[in-house]
């Protein structure tokens, strides 16, 4: 990095220090130790958005179709992040996970998930109600459940802090409070509030803003990011009161897993998340980070979806918005385990917002990871769940693709 802060020259520039950007930067520096790698992050600290505010679940990989990138990286991501936590003495709770049928209709959904799990070579066991209760005495099961022994939970912020330490030790520069403002594509330079950065190669991993940045480079045409808010409620119960994660059978028509019970690393548990459509990208609270331009931009995508969605956006939106009212989240969680009452959930956890990509022509949500690029820049556009689990092998795959494009 050249010392003059108004004009910097680097080999690789990564925009956005979430888990995906951090892992890609680390992978690039490992492959090309003599090259300079710079990460710019608009926030004054790391993990302010989804990488620091997610459920912290290392997923096992049985929700995704076998031909997807998610399936390709989830098992390996789970394994490598588990190993990473062990090597870096980061807390990990190997609590496993139950997916439970709540009624006779959901048994078919359970069979479907089991088949997907087998196709993806995931360790997944079909068990009866009695065995499920041996794993988690409070669980409510209609006849059958699936048990995933490899699902575990970590503290996402601690993982992010370890990534930063690793990056700095390798000699990667991280500039906080440095926001990408615009791009000059011909010279592959970007403008930030502190000046210009010229880069041999640019990787855009800007999460909720990745589509906007990609469009400046001529990508993400007809694609837009829709923000969906995930609210969680923390249980007042003591550590150890629930032993394992408990999930419902999801509606696989949309990419969200439904309100579930997550056992956190400290052994306590939280319920959520919701998937409430936001009106602008970082709408964490009612007015937080309000930007009129984003309201109109998001509205242009969401309003047509209400009337002519390629999926049932209207039902999803109305069903999810109702979960702003605490008892509606609690009611969903009470279908999964016994002893769940409104009085036990007084504290909201910091919400996270999913950067979900939608195809504005078909009006469908993209379910798999998606990226576009050329020999000068690459844009990660749909790093939705389980990108936190997958980040290590996904970064390696992305760097292979950069290699082939250069
Ligand atoms: C509620 C919720 C629960 C989830 N649970 C799980 C889970 O249990 N397991 C799992 O595997 N995944 C989970 N996920 C998904 C996971 O968190 C994300 O897939 C992952 O964090 C995406 O990482 P990222 O690096 O792409 O994005 P981010 O973490 O959003 O990082 C992008 C970064 O880019 C920065 N940025 C944006 N614009 C600019 C700009 N103009 N200039 C400079 N920097 C910029 C942002 O400030 C941000 O730090 C969950 C997500 C949510 C929201």
Any overview of this molecule?
- The protein is of the alpha+beta class and 406 residues long.
- It is built from ten helices and 21 strands.
- The protein has helices spanning 19-31, 69-87, 106-119, 129-135, 156-170, 210-216, 292-308, 313-321, 326-333, 387-405; strands at residues 7-15, 37-40, 57-58, 92-93, 97-100, 125-128, 144-148, 152-154, 173-175, 180-184, 189-192, 195-204, 223-234, 245-248, 260-263, 269-272, 276-277, 347-359, 364-365, 371-373, 377-380.
- The strands form four sheets. Strands 1, 2, 9, 10, 11, 12, 20 and 21 form an eight-stranded mixed sheet that branches.
- Helix 1 packs parallel to helix 5 (156-170) and helix 1 packs across helix 10.
- 48% of the residues are buried.
- The mean pLDDT is 95.
- It binds flavin-adenine dinucleotide.
- The site of flavin-adenine dinucleotide has 39 residues, from helix 1, strand 18 and helix 10.
